[in-house]
Fold:
Amino acid sequence: MSSSPPLIELRNVSKVFVNRSLRQRSVVYALREVSLTIARGEVLALVGESGSGKSTTAQLLARLTHPSGGEIWFDGRAINRQAGARELRQYRRRVQMIFQDPFSSLNAVHTVGYHVGRPLAIHRLVPPGRALAAQVETLLETVGLHPGREFVSKFPHQLSGGQRQRVGIARALAPNPDVLIADEPTSMLDVSLRLDVMNLLLDLRTTRKVSMLYITHDLSGANYMADRIAVMYRGTIMEEAPADVLMKDPVHPYTRLLLDASTADFGNGPSVAGPLGALDPSSPGCPFYPRCPSRMPVCSETRPVSAWIADEAEHRVSCHRYHDAESPKTGRDAQPKV
Amino acid sequence: MIDAPSASVSSRPRRVGQWLLVVRPLLRNAKARTGVAIFLFFGLVALLAPILSPYNPHLTIFAPGASPSAAHWLGTTQSGQDILSQMIWGTRQPLEIALGAGLLTTLIAVGIGISAGLFGGVYDEILMLITNIFLILPGLVVVIVISSYLSSANNLMISLVITVTSWPWGARVLRAQTLNLKSKDFVKAAIVAGEMRFRLAFFEVLPNMTSLVASNFFFTCLYAVVTAASLQFLGLGNINTVSWGSILYWANNSQALMIGAWWWFVPPGLAIGLLGAAFALINFGIDELTNPRLRREAK
Amino acid sequence: MQPVLHVEGLWVDYFTRGRRLRVVQDVSFAIERGEMLGLAGESGSGKSTVALAVARLLRPENAAVGGMVRLNGTDFLALVGEGLRQTRWKSVALVSQSAMNALNPVINIFRQFDDMLTAHGYTDAVQNRHRAAELLDLVDLPEQVLNRFPHQLSGGMKQRVVIALALALHPDLIIMDEPTTALDVIVEREILSKVKTLQRQLGFSVLFITHDLDLLLRLTDRVAIMYAGQLVETGPVGHFSRSLHPYSRALVQSFPSLHQHASDRRRGIPGAPPDLSHPPAGCRFHPRCVFVADVCQTAPAWEAVSEDPLIAVRCSRWKEIRDEFVSTVD
Structure:
């Protein structure tokens, strides 16, 4: 682990949604005992498909919802659900979020200036009036909207998708946060604009030293952006490692499939995953079991625990194939054969 | 990402304010335009009643039961009052009650609907329980019962009585829309930015429901016009004030229909219908503007 | 040999708000039997409109279509009424992102097949059931799926059903418009691998439309790139590592490769796609182009660089760009 204490830490965080209908009451785990850390100035990418729980993680960190179990620590203190207004406001100043959909994340009735200026006013960072207006313009120019003055009085519908997303980023930057949560910030943008938004975020990381949780479904984007990558599947962290390690040397069968699916040519060789099967939510086994090409009988019976890989810094995996081995040493050789 | 022809971003009219945003397209809609025109006509008549009215509506000095003539365009009543003057002065009361009830109802519906939807939980459940109780009260019956206790009801009283039975509809609709907007990212973004509840409700959610709020307002106006007229026709409320409803009451009382004095009951009936239609037309216009499917067919 | 689909000078106008807007202009391409052509473009580039125009799914009150579309040599744009209906489904099938959500929710999967087959003259229910099971087998779905309803299937399974439906009448051409965009990458890979296998097995042609150029370069035989309603470049997949149009070059570049970290910074394309009601004069890409010169003020022609394999480009400076490439590579 890194030497300094993490800025953000999730400790065994679970999030449960209860579906109540007349006949039955069913429980859906959006997150199951997820543990993650983000160090100061670090970018952690959370990779997963839709329904993997990555957006729920973002909402938890943004305190838009509360965990059902476990704890979230921020800057050495556990987040308290019954936090006072002051503490919550303090948190909101320091942890900001960029949303996925630039079309729905801006309010159609407010100007660009309003969107970017509000956080400044709420947190009383700049006195209202000319100073605030000037700060809004500076922020807009920081995110590449030149000249800022021309954008201030525009409404969202007058902007392109890429420009809207930049306004969203400017708004998140306004209170000068320590942490940015970026929930698939480029997935709704045109291909030609994505890279620039990613680069903008990377620049901000360098110039402002913000930590970032970068959420994406795209491994190559995660690798481009992040220091470390965590791969999530159905609410569980399957594997976590420094970006280069994960890309070069993935251990978990799911990560391998993901990597394969995003690189290899099509139509060569057999279909990659096992037979299609829906997971019974009450199944005690590994969540990836029904689709896993290297599953074993034990995989359907018990959930694998997440464990660090010996001899490798910051690389952990949650897979029976792996932990099955007697010792961590030989575990290295006991990788699943795909 | 939809692959549609990129609608030009710059050619749409610049929004100058919330007000213009609603009003300008509304006036481009033929139905709404007709509605607004009728409404403005009655509004002008009510304002200019002292100038427009040929006689004092209370004077009983004319030949009773006269049919329309050059001196009395709409004839006279059985007790010798000029009906045209009564009609002109009588515009005021239905308008005041309609706007009063519309405003009160909308205020309550907005307050309860948005706060219930936005804050949720127990607060929401209690408010919705109250709303539902009011919702199942039989409207007109309640209004009649309350009115019969208020012998000298003024316009504000009647507006209040109508409000009691009409607010739950709007509250439910606005709550549903609030729930819908609450799940939108811009509301979440405002929460993350640190906005307090009051600002969330009135600066983020409410401006996105202007058409619903307006349509709720005009619907209540329509309901109020009809209800107020019914009350007076039944002799409840104050029948000694001059209003379309009371003209109808006296016409009915004097067997105007039997004696064939059509000039006595047709004008107030028509006026009530027209004002109601005006509110309904404005409402249709708003509907067409906010519902794209209707808009296309309206072309 | 005659191509399965031959499109020449295709244009499409949309009627919106009383205006006429040209959203596709001068699009020409051909697809050989058994070939898969990828059509890439950003949103608003007109790529889906091309699909709808080729499948004759644009309604005349909403859009005007001109130019030439030949299906197996038949003038497809000239067909009307019953002739169009029969040819459309027997020769072309469309699989879109929305298709999997367009399965009728109140009838089971077998009925979806049965209705479709019945509409084309196959009225024997027993045979249809047999045929439906066969089709499902082609896309690796068990026969039991026939008794399920759409909401009981996952997104990937629904899209497989849609592909099986598309195969039912042995079309010569299947148009796939972002068929897997809503699905996750592993399911996407399973389905597209299956499509490739089926294509080899059954010999149909595919027009594959997506914004994901990276995917196309791994999936298809040939790629065409659209920008602002026009084709800007086409060629075999291998050509795009040295593409001649600045837009396609930038587009290829704008996907971070899997082993690329931010230390090796890449740039996106500055600016945004144009508003089609006021496209830029001359080359439509010139306001965003790094190779822009005076010559770009006049509209470049669609120019063949080589005939076999067909490489064509719409850029006045392609020769200079090619020469620069040669010099930097050597």
